């Protein structure tokens, strides 16, 4: 389980647009890494739209936002185009990064259990350490809460 004060697990993942993104490449800037279950679902769309709406404020706070899900790069490209998203979306199809951050969990719906991503967010400082963690996030209003924490860091 990744906790505040620990070094953030580094990653290099394929991202929307066909390139890759590496956590270490943003140092000494701050980074928000948020994990979400699935492209183009209601809660995930709302969360991505709210992070996009605040993208200029995050940039002014010296903070980059990266959303990560198990969806493919192709899915991310469609998701970004459909909703006009302006944040980085990385693909963790093998779930290695989700496992490293402790967000790949057993979930349950309608009496069936399955493995999936628990909606979680990590604020990482300029030294690469986890500054704050939000688990079991509710999408609405979450981006503003994270922005306030990034501005205070």
How is this structure best described in words?
GO terms for molecular function: thioredoxin peroxidase activity. Residues 2-153 form the Thioredoxin domain. Keywords: Antioxidant, Disulfide bond, Oxidoreductase, Peroxidase, Redox-active center. It comes from Cereibacter ovatus. Helices cover 29% and strands 29% of the residues. By secondary structure, it is an alpha/beta fold. It has a single domain, classed as Glutaredoxin (3-Layer(aba) Sandwich). The protein is globular, with a radius of gyration of 14 Å. The relative contact order is 0.24. The mean pLDDT is 93.
Condensed summary:
GO terms for molecular function: thioredoxin peroxidase activity. The chain contains five helices and nine strands, in the order βββααβαβαββββα.
């Amino acid at each position: 389980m990744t906790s505040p004060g620990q070094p953030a697990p580094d990653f290099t993942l394929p991202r929307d647009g066909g390139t890759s993104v590496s956590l270490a490449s943003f140092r000494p800037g701050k980074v928000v890494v948020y994990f979400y279950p699935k492209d183009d679902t209601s809660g995930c769309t709302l969360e991505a739209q709210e992070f996009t709406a605040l993208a200029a404020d995050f940039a002014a706070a010296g903070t980059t936002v990266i959303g990560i899900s198990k969806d493919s790069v192709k899915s991310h490209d469609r998701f970004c185009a459909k909703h006009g998203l302006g944040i980085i979306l990385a693909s963790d199809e093998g779930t290695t990064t989700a496992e490293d951050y402790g967000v790949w969990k057993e979930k349950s719906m309608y009496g069936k259990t399955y493995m999936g991503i628990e909606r979680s967010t990590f604020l990482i400082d300029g030294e690469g350490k986890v500054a704050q963690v939000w688990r079991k996030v509710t999408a609405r209003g979450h981006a503003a809460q994270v922005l306030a924490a990034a501005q205070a860091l």
